[in-house]
Design brief:
The complex is a heterotrimer of chains A (103), B (163) and C (614).
Chain A lengths: L2 H21 L3 H26 L3 H31 L17
Chain B lengths: L1 H22 L3 H21 L3 H26 L12 H24 L12 H10 L2 H22 L5
Chain C lengths: L1 H21 L6 H29 L3 E11 L2 E9 L1 H24 L6 H20 L3 H19 L6 H32 L6 H7 L5 H18 L8 H4 L5 H10 L4 H8 L1 H4 L3 H22 L5 H21 L3 H28 L17 H15 L5 H15 L3 H27 L12 H16 L4 H8 L10 H26 L11 H7 L4 H50 L4 H23 L2
Antiparallel strand pairs in C: 1-2
Helix pairs in contact in C: 1-2, 1-4, 2-3, 2-4, 3-4, 3-10, 3-15, 3-19, 4-5, 5-6, 6-7, 6-8, 8-11, 10-15, 11-15, 13-14, 13-18, 14-15, 14-17, 14-18, 15-16, 15-17, 15-19, 16-18, 16-19, 17-18, 17-21, 18-21
Classes of the chains: A mainly alpha (103), B mainly alpha (163), C mainly alpha (614).
């Protein structure tokens, strides 16, 4: 068991999260992909912490977990609010800031 | 040897779960994938001899976040016909994965240049605790305020407008 | 003192303009007349004083009014010089100008634009004096342009009639064409000879190094300006139309002063024209052609002012013959005498026109010698002068020119000029006899005020006596370098030949016109061509005007909208469409924005991987 395995896993999960943000229109999926990215960063931090024998990395990871929790609440509240506005959880339906084109 | 095989099994579960997250049409199935991935993360932390972190992950991420997400998904209760129809989902996924590849490679290469072996014995939860409450007290307090703010914010955003 | 001479007319023009504009409809004729004539009176006194000073001391006067441009060693100052040439010019310009101003008080009385008229008139006097007194070609050119402007303003004075405005435009535009040549000449002159400074004396000193071809070029270009200003072929067509202005204008501007500016200019630049006798020949040929041409046309005209206009053009041709062949003194002397009798002729014609209730066709007049005795006598004297009959002024000046032409070997010019002299006598006496002698055609006549008749008398006296100043004139001016050696008997023979020709002309006119005056009809082809002024106006219209108008239409309708606008629209279209492409990128979907970010990150990662060899 060497750190490379952990790093590889973390990078792959990060990129999968990135792909999820770009490709999906369902707001929930977008949220979950963000969480995935954050958690993979947590993994990297924990690995680094073990590598350098410094508990500071683990403390950082702990604090990030707390932030994840807070952000979960807010994000889901927003999704519910948007759903109440437009009865839709499709991110393509929220286009108010689009460029109004007149030629 | 044991650790490696546990690692491989866990990572396979995590990869499968994450693929499930990004490819499912039904939201609930994605949340199931999310659940699996989070539990897998807990396992990973445990493999890294980081007991406290593993515990925190299971308690918070799985117990709170996943459950909350599941609650939100089920309370929105989108019918099949109201779900967004994404005709080009797989093309997008393929295209973005190609796009993301260099970045992933860069991260992996950079990180793997750090060290090749785990050399140390690790530390206990006691060390984490003393570190947290000695040098990291300020972030700790700020996070608590952050949680308070998030709670209030979530309530304000999500409540019904009874006007 | 020279400063005052130039600035007083301008100042009074300004005052008159301001007073007139403050209340145009109020009748203040006495005020306008006193200011207008008074300023010219002062200017005349000062000019005659200057002339006396220059004559008695024999030196020129230089005064500086204002330092205008001074850059390194390039200086142009508003400075005046009164050498013999300028002194003589301002002497008779102001004197005759004064008489015509007094005449105009009577002629224009009752006209509602009285103040405007005198303002313009004074503006003209100031400009002419500026032109003549300038000591550098640039200031002379300013005066040159200003007299063109005053001429335009005064020709178009009766502005309610569109034809007058057209005539004014024609005068100004043709003047401008000439001025183009003049400016080119000045510019080239400055380039080659202006290294010491740009006054006439400086140019004269710097002229020796210049090649003869450049000088010829300059000489021709400067003469192009004179062609426009002094109505020679081919830029003369404005002069007959300019008769649309009031008669005092015709008398002052188009007879005595402005049109002689070209002759003055050639005399002023005599140091250039001395060195290029070929150009001088060219000038003389143009002069004699214009003289003959105008004389032929004048023989068939019926409008009294147009006859006089063509007569002016003809006499200007004589002046250019003189200065072209190098006889500057004789040319300026003819300017001097011509001013007297031509102004007198115009003023007399104006008196006749007023008396006949603004009738201008001579064949509708007749037998006026009984009623308008004074006008008749003065015009008779003027006609004798212009025909070259001794002892009146024209005899001396015309003779000097003809004899100089003969003895310097230009026999063709002499023959043509003598022929023109005969024709001049013929058509001038034709005018006199038709208006004053032939069958009576008088209805009731308007009474003439003394302000109109007294100047006629003074000018008649001048026309009689001016000729005797010839010798003193030549000695005083002494610009001419060539001296004539001619036998006294030959000179006498030539002079008598001229007199005989003039008397023949008078006799023919007497025979044809003194009893019955019948207007010539255009029944033969030759007559038709001559009466229609050789169709020159129509030819210009066809050759020059129509192509220019067609080209303008082409540019305005085709090239501008389709050519230039197309390019600009193309430019605009490129920017617009690029903008539209970019605006499509902002479709409001956050997903796409994230995609753009990832694209950027990916590009950077690829770059780092390749460059840093990770």
């Amino acid at each position: 068991m060497n750190p490379d395995m952990f790093f590889l896993l973390a990078s792959v999960l990060f990129s999968i999260g990135l792909v999820g943000i770009i490709s999906r229109r369902n707001l929930f999926i977008v949220y979950i992909s963000i969480e995935l990215m954050l958690s993979s960063i947590n993994l990297i931090l924990a690995t680094l912490s073990k590598l350098s024998n410094d508990p500071a990395g683990s403390v950082m990871a702990l604090i990030i977990i707390a932030v994840i929790a807070a952000e979960a609440a807010l994000f889901l509240a927003i999704i519910i609010h948007l759903n109440r506005l437009k009865r839709s959880i499709d991110s393509d339906d929220f286009k108010e800031l689009a460029q109004k084109g007149d030629s | 040897m044991l650790e490696t095989s546990i690692f491989i099994i866990l990572s396979l579960f995590m990869l499968g779960g994450s693929i499930a997250i990004i490819t499912n049409k039904q939201t609930v199935f994605s949340v199931f994938g999310f659940l699996i991935v989070m539990i897998g993360f807990g396992g990973m932390f445990a493999l890294l001899d980081n007991r406290f972190l593993a515990l925190a992950q299971i308690m918070v991420s799985v117990g709170a976040v996943v459950v909350l997400s599941m609650l939100a998904v089920l309370s929105v209760n989108a019918q099949e016909k109201n779900l967004p129809n994404e005709p080009y989902k797989y093309r997008w996924i393929v295209f973005s994965s190609i796009l993301v590849l260099p970045f992933t490679y860069l991260i992996y290469k950079t990180l793997s240049s750090l060290a090749k072996e785990f050399t140390t014995n690790g530390f206990t939860s006691k060390d984490i605790g003393s570190e947290l409450f000695n040098s990291w007290v300020l972030p700790f307090e700020i996070v608590s305020i952050l949680l308070l703010t998030a709670m209030i914010g979530a309530i304000v955003i999500a409540r019904k407008d009874n006007s | 003192m020279l400063n005052l001479i130039v600035t007083i007319p301008f100042l009074s023009a300004l005052i008159l303009a301001l007073v007139y504009l403050s209340n145009p409809s109020k009748k203040r004729e006495k005020l306008y007349a006193s200011v207008g004539v008074g300023s010219i009176l002062i200017t005349t006194i000062l000019s005659l004083n200057t002339l006396y000073q220059v004559v008695s001391s024999g030196e020129s006067i230089n005064t500086l009014l204002y330092e205008w441009i001074s850059i390194d060693n390039f200086t142009i100052n508003l400075a005046f010089i009164a050498d013999p040439l300028s002194a003589v010019m301002i002497g008779f310009i102001t004197f005759i100008g004064l008489l015509i101003h007094i005449y105009a008080v009577g002629y224009m009385s009752g006209d509602e634009g009285f103040g405007k008229f005198f303002s313009y008139f004074n503006l003209f006097m100031g400009s002419m004096l500026l032109l003549v007194l300038a000591n550098t070609p640039i200031i002379m050119f300013i005066g040159w342009e200003l007299v063109g402007l005053s001429s335009y303003l005064l020709i178009g004075y009766y502005h309610k009639d569109g034809a007058n405005i057209k005539a004014a435009n024609k005068a100004f535009i043709l003047n401008r064409v000439g001025d183009f040549g003049f400016i080119m000449g000045i510019l080239i002159l400055f380039l080659v000879a202006g290294s010491n400074g740009f006054t006439f004396t400086d140019i004269e000193s710097g002229i020796s190094e210049v090649s003869l071809t450049t000088l010829s070029f300059i000489g021709v270009l400067l003469f192009v300006g004179a062609m426009g200003k002094s109505a020679q072929i081919p830029l003369y067509v404005w002069l007959p139309d300019a008769m649309a202005g009031p008669t005092p204008v015709s008398a002052l501007i188009h007879a005595a002063t402005m049109v002689t500016a070209g002759v003055y200019m050639v005399a002023r630049f005599s140091f250039i024209y001395e060195l290029i006798p070929n150009v001088g020949e060219f000038i003389a040929i143009i002069g004699v052609s214009s003289a003959l041409f105008a004389a032929i046309i004048a023989s068939y005209q019926s409008d009294i002012k147009k006859i006089l206009a063509y007569s002016t053009m003809s006499q200007l041709g004589y002046m250019f013959v003189a200065v072209g062949l190098g006889f500057y003194d004789e040319g300026i002397f003819h300017v001097f005498t011509h001013a007297f009798f031509k102004a007198l002729l115009f003023m007399g014609a104006g008196a006749v026109i007023i008396a006949m209730h603004h009738e201008q066709n001579i064949f509708k007049m007749g037998g006026l010698k009984k009623e308008l005795k004074l006008v008749y006598i003065t015009m008779f004297i003027a006609t004798l002068a212009i025909s070259g009959i001794p002892p009146f002024a024209g005899f001396f000046s015309k003779d000097a020119i003809l004899i100089s032409a003969y003895t310097s070997g230009y026999t063709t010019i002499w023959v043509l000029a003598s022929l023109t002299a005969a024709l001049t006598s013929y058509y001038m006496f034709r005018l006199l006899f038709v208006v004053f002698h032939s069958k009576e055609n008088t209805k009731s006549l308007v009474k003439l005020t003394p302000s109109m008749t007294v100047p006629l008398v003074i000018l008649a006296i001048g026309a009689t006596l001016a000729g005797f100043a010839q010798n003193g004139f030549s000695e005083f001016l002494s610009i001419t370098n060539s001296s004539l050696n001619i036998e006294h008997s030959l000179e006498l023979m030539l002079e008598s030949l001229n007199v005989v020709l003039a008397l023949i002309g008078m006799g023919v006119a007497y025979k044809l016109y003194s009893k019955d005056a019948i207007e010539a009809k255009a029944n033969t082809l030759v007559k038709k061509v001559i009466i229609n002024k050789f169709y020159i106006d129509e030819i210009y219209e066809l050759i020059i005007m129509k192509p220019i108008v067609a080209a303008s239409k082409l540019i305005a309708n085709v090239i501008d909208p389709k050519g230039f606008d197309l390019v600009i629209k193309l430019n605009v279209w490129i920017y617009r469409s690029t903008g539209e492409v970019f605006s499509k990128l902002q479709n409001g979907l956050v997903r796409y924005y994230a995609l753009y970010m990832i694209i950027g990150v990916s590009a950077m990662s690829i770059y780092i991987i390749i460059k840093l060899g990770v």
